[in-house]
Fold this protein.
Amino acid sequence: MQQLEVLYESTPKAVPFIERKIEIPSHTVNLYGPPASGKTWLVLDYLSKLPKKKRLYIDLKDLRIDIELLSSSIQAFIDENGIECVVFDHYEGQLELPVCKQAIVVTRAPFKRNRMMPLLLLPTLDFEEFLAFEKRHTSLEHSFSSYIRVGSLPEISFVHDSQLTMKMHKIARDIFRDPTELTLFKHISRFQGKPVTSNQLYTLTKRVCKVSKDRVYNIIKSWEELQVLSWVPKQGCPKAAKRAVIFDFALTASMYFEKSLMGQLYAIAAKKLTSSGKNAAYTDSVDLVDVENRKAVLISPFANQQSAAAKVAYAAEDIDKFLIEDISILTLSNSFTFTFEKIEVKALPFYEWIMQDI
C-alpha cells in the first residue's frame, strides 16, 4: 500500500482560492467541466476544510500511480484508516469506485455510469466573480475593460499581460485536444454572437481537414453538454440560424488578429440574461429580447442619444410586435435616457447593467 500511504500523507495544499458561486455538497458528487474551469482548485479548497485523516486525494494523471495496484488495495485502505472523503481527479473510468461516505469524482464530461449528483463547474467567471479574482481593481469601468481583454477563465486572471495570448492558446489546445476539434473551434470563434448553423460549420471545417458531418455534429453536441457552446434562437423562427455564444469571449478573440468587440459584448450580455433564468432570443432588429418579460436589449458600444434613438426607431416594428415595455441600450461608458412611444429607454454602461438583478 506504499503509494496510497504517500498519497494519504501528501494531499496538495489549496492554492490561494477565490470563492466561486458554486459549492461542493457533503455527499457523493461528480464535479465536471472542461480544463481551466477550476475544478482542482475547488476540490482542494473543499478538502482543506476537512480533517486531514478523513480525506484522500488521488490525481489519476500522476504517472507514479499503478492503477492495477490501486484498484486492488484502495477499499481496504479506506476501511483501515477510516477515510470518509475520497477524491478521484482526472477520472476516466480507470478503476471501480470504492465504497466510502463521500466520493468526489472529477471529470471533463458528466460521468454517467454511476448514480451520483452531477455538478457542473462552468469554465468561466461572471463579472462579479472576476472582480473577486482581479488584483488591480480600481473602478468598475476599468475592471470591465480588463474583463473584455483578459476574459473569464479563472487561471487567466493570474497571467501577465505579455503572456495572455500564449496562455489562451495553451488552454485551447488542452480543451480541444483533437486537431479536428481545435479547427472547428477556430471556425466557430469567428461567429461569436452571430447566426450560424451546424452545417455551415461542417462545410468550413471539411475544407481544412477530412471529417464527416456526424463527427462535427457530435463535437457540437458535446460542447453544448459542457456549456462550452450555447445558442440564442431567433424569436418565433425555430428553423432559423441561431446565434453562437461560446463560453469565453476572450479565448475566441485570441484565435484571430482581428477582434470583434460586438461579438464579445454579445456573449457577455447573452450569458447574463440566460444565467438569470431569462429566455433570451434575437430578432432582425433587436440583439436580445425576453418576450415573456417584455424586455429588449440593444448593444451599441459607442452610442450617443441621436444614434441610440435611430437604433430604437429601426427596431420599432419588433418592439410593437412583442409588446416590449422595457428597453436597455448597453454602451461602454455613456448613460442617458429618452422616451420612445411612451417607453422610457435607458442607455447605460455594460459594467452597471451586468451588476444589476435583471
